[in-house]
Amino acid sequence: MFVRTIAAVIAMFAALLMGASVASAAPAKYTHAQATAQLRAAGITWSSSGNCSDRNRSNCTSFEQINQTTIAGAKTFKRASGCALNITGGTETGHASGTYSHWNGYKVDFSLSSCVTNYITRTFTSIGGNKWKSGSGNIYYRESNHWDVTYYNCGGC
Q: What SS3 class is residue 157?
């Protein structure tokens, strides 16, 4: 049995090396209420210029249909950095489109603070263009008034 298992694992890796792909499931999602409960428990705040959470209004901050790994990534960042963390952008309309977009649940925006900026720029690797990459592959992009963060994974949760 052990030999068959090892042979199957080797065959899978060989197929991947030769260009085969492994099907991946759609990311697990949270409702707005589920996400805010997770954030609140971790001591992470959120705000919006419209003081609202309607996903279809660009001046709101919504977490409806956000990836669970995105919320876990924000929690990991807060725990690792020790910084106060405020999210100003989630899955609401008004952001750029694309596969790894806010709307699709991969991105959040962090408020600027010296603690957050110093942690990102001193801990992660600069990849040019005001972007830093964490060891787990997540991207932190310094825009004019916030950090635009793409979570491909939970950042070592």
A: coil
